[in-house]
Amino acid sequence: MSETAPSRDRLPLAERKVEDLPGHWLLAHLGKRVLRPGGRALTEQLLDDAHLTDADVLEIAPGLGKTATSILERNPRSYVGVEADADAVSLTQQVVGSRGRVVTADADSTGLDDASVDAAIGEAMLTMQSERHKADIIAEAFRVLRPGGRYAIHELALNPDTLSDDQKTEIRKSLARSIKVNARPLTEAEWRTVLTDAGFEIETVRFAPMALLQPRRVIADEGVGRTLRFVANVIRQPAARKRVLGMRKTFTTYRDNLAAIEVIARKPADR
Ligand SMILES: C[S@@+](CC[C@H](N)C(=O)[O-])C[C@H]1O[C@@H](n2cnc3c(N)ncnc32)[C@H](O)[C@@H]1O
């Protein structure tokens, strides 16, 4: 992302037009709080698998700070969030209070010391980076983790591994058009490779359906009250409704090719 010209993702929410808001900010603006492809259930599983109790934890791109609450419930020794968006930094800092700190920085240069955390958690953020930036962020996670530390990611995956390049391009273009973010999900094999190329060992891989906008998932993630408010906001705002229906159409069209993926990658004990 450019240093001089802020991207749409960096503008304060009030200055962004509904027509080209990135999908996660559009959904947040409409009252949705869980913005991960596998929903709350996969987040909870990811955090259990990452072993956070008494750990020094880095959360990469905490967004609205929803996962921060679940991290703190596991009683880590310390919490630091690193987030590029100023609005998101202050939202997460409000959630975390005196139990941790949130800094404004790009995930590829966190400013943390080498080997200073036991776990790094990143959800729904690597998918939206270029291949080069994915590699830079993964290398940064590797640098700040202690030997034996875990990098836990919850991202969007393409299915099956045998998809042709043309099929992958078609899905990525459709996602980019509807969610207004250059989403570049990878197949399971590709996610494994970007992590092992950086020196990680793969400890766990799990999947969940990509059902972000399916009614049953929305109710499970948000609860009935917040779901009703979200639906009312969608109905009341025609421009936002058009965007949400467009996103849902893309997710439905490619439902057999999209999944949420959890990967726990471990920094070898001797590195
Ligand atoms: C889809 S939201 C996910 C937020 C949160 N992890 C969650 O699952 O709800 C993406 C967040 O990633 C942040 N982000 C995107 N690229 C980033 C980067 N390179 N460095 C730090 N934060 C980034 C955005 O500012 C936004 O808050």
From TrEMBL:
Location of the Methyltransferase domain: 57-149
GO function term, MF aspect, one: methyltransferase activity
Keyword Methyltransferase annotated: yes
CDD domains reported in the protein's UniProt record: AdoMet_MTases
Keyword vocabulary terms for this entry: Methyltransferase, Transferase
Chain segments annotated as transmembrane: none
A single BP term in Gene Ontology: methylation
Pfam families linked to this entry: Methyltransf_25 (PF13649)
Protein name: Methyltransferase domain-containing protein
Organism of this sequence: Gordonia desulfuricans
